[in-house]
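subagent[fold] <- orchestrator: predict structure for attached chain, return tokens only, no commentary.
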Amino acid sequence: MAAITMYELPGCPYCAKVRSKLEELDLEYDVIEVPRSHDDRTEVEKVSGQTGVPVIIDEEHGVEGMHESDDIVDYLEETYA
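subagent[fold] -> orchestrator:
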């Protein structure tokens, strides 16, 4: 199991942006696909307090439920680049 977990929705351009950065930095990560309906996204809501994606958890650095793709990309750059 990878230290980074990403919650995403297939076809989401913001998720693709984060996935691209993870791959660019050659980071191992697990993916959890969320349901299309925001009402059914209880798991991602528990970790982030909201139902939007992408969301990442980085256990190694104590990050739980970071959302907003630009913030995630900036975090990944600062932490792993």
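orchestrator: received. Logging for downstream: Residues 13 and 54 are 9 Å apart (CA to CA). The first strand starts at residue 4 and ends at 8.
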